[in-house]
Every structure is written in structure tokens, then in C-alpha cells.
Amino acid sequence: QVQLVESGGGLVQAGDSLRLSCAASGRTFTDSNMGWFRQAPGKEREFVAAIIWSGAMTYYVGSVKGRFTISRDNTKNMLYLQMNSLKPEDTAVYYCAAGGGIGVRGEVPFYYGADYWGKGTLVTVSS
Description:
Elements (H helix, E strand, L loop, with lengths): L2 E5 L2 E4 L4 E8 L8 E6 L6 E6 L6 E3 L7 E6 L4 E6 L8 E7 L2 E5 L2 E5 L3 E2 L3 E6 L1
Parallel strand pairs: 2-13
Antiparallel strand pairs: 1-3, 3-8, 4-5, 4-9, 5-6, 7-8, 9-12, 9-13, 10-11
């Protein structure tokens, strides 16, 4: 059974940092794109960041560019999201996704067709 399990969320203050992790099990994802999404209360799920299978290229939504860093360790089947300079508007449940594709339209990246999703980890940033 394929599972993606996120961890590392919590309650922090504005300006703090957090590192989210996503542990994959049941199969390896060394040949798959992976990404992070988030869903804030009352809003739709949105793309945050993505990384191609090799880790050689990364993509970010504009609101987190320069503050968040996505990375992966294929030897451990792990995906990470380092989040710095957190803002209250970053408050959301963060989800890990695997499989699917990454596209760019008008310099705006997007992630589509994920095959697997985690159940999410809550990040709350207080002002």
C-alpha cells in the first residue's frame, strides 16, 4: 500500500521557520515528480512547490518564492519543504503529492495529475 505521510507542522510565530517532511512508503518515487500543496481555511487547495524526479529543477508559487525551499532525498524516499520567514497567510494544511506532471504557463508553474496524496500536516503562523 502506497502511503505519503507528512510531518513537521505546528504553531509558530511570524518570521519563524519550519521544515516539513513527507515520508513515502509502499513504492519508490525516484522516477516521479513530487510537490507540496496547501489549503487554508475556507479556500481551495493551492500549489506551493514542486521538484522533478532527479531534484535538478524546482518550481514555486510566487508567494513563497525566496522563502520556501523544496528538496528530496531519493535514497530515503523523502520529500522536504523548508519554510522560512513564515507569515500568517502561510497558515494552512500542507499536503505532499507524488506522481503527475509539472507545467509552466506564462512563467507560472503548476502541478497536475498527482497519483498519490498525503493526509496533510497543519501549519499555523501567528502574528
